[in-house]
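pinging the channel bc i need a second pair of eyes. not urgent but kinda urgent?? the chain im working w is below, pasted from the shared doc
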Amino acid sequence: MLAAGVCLSASAFSKTEVSFYFPIAVGGPITKIIDQYATDFNQAHPDYKVTPVYSGTYQETIVKALTAHKAGKPPTAAILLSTDTFTLADEAAITPIDKFVKTEDDRAWLKSFFPAFMLNGQFDNKTWGIPFQRSTVVLYWNKEMFKEAGLDPNTPPKNWAETVSMGQKLTKKDASGNVTQWGIQVPSSGFPYWLFQGFSTQNDAILANAAGNQVKYDDPKVIEALQYWVDLSKKYGIHPSGVVQWGTTPRDFMEKKVAMIWTTTGNLTNIRSNAKFDFGVAMLPEGKRRGSPTGGGNFFIFSKASAAEQEGAYQFAKWLTQPERAAQWSIDTGYVAVSPAAYETPTLKKYAAEFPPALVARDQLPFAVAELSTHDNQRVTKALNDGLQAALTGAKSPAQALKDAQVEADRLLRKYK
């Protein structure tokens, strides 16, 4: 009887462990926020213990997660790129969220997200991941530089033609003809395909089908979009030549080396905290239409976790994405709050009234398209990235670069058709 009592007592105090991979390489403000989330959730849900694991970049995190999955020791949950959905499902690494949705409250929660953010998480009539830290590409501009160039500091370029004309006025050279200030900078390392989707979407082209087994890299409209990006440097001289680094672009902007940049809305809080000048944020300039891809990470639950662990992960996902928490996450990071309800909270209403740029990425969502995602996504995307960089460095013409990328993508996707 005494032994049975000890067993019962031990089981009463046991907690279900929920390991949670989060894609960040080093400590800092974000890790402190996630650590606090885990602490708060664990206090409110004594049956579970969520343990964050900071797993490096997105690319490093999916490698670690899939390696652990194949070894039979996966995390319970992870934040991974929404574009990894096909890959994770093909590897049978994740389980659909739908199987946990049982009550009216569950169903209302699943329907609460912005539809644009669900595009990369659903296929085969299943929801594989739910949005957490999501973004779009936006334009940042230095209002002081605009004023110095004789431009209205409160009016960014509305379209491709204005980008060129304003960029020419904003580009400065020294007596030797060396550029000291660029008009515009669009990064082409790290996520070149993502930034390029701004141009291709604006030229009314969609890069991949919803089934993830076909791409249209060599569509004439896609080639035309890449030609425009190349022309910003080669023809108009308002953009740095060659490959522009993803990581240094926000710093170049804050160091006043460039007047306008395209980057993620996830850089908004960073730029607001560190820029020593007045800046603006706007939707991307339109071509034939307005548009940007969505981006960022989804919350996934792993298939080899126990039923209890999976349920804990599901409860954590619901808890993380409640409107007040989503609102505060948006304020703290610059990412887009993932539901309309978050923007109706007093917290985010007050913040947006004080800092209207916080609403730009949200307002761009009606014009947003799914981020490029296919089966064998990393290799299919790499084919495009290589083509983009070949064109931007002058190694190939835009047409040849994209035709070569199409051939490689067709080869990779053949078995999924």
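so The chain has 18 helices and twelve strands. and The chain has a mean pLDDT of 94. — does that match what u expected or am i reading it wrong
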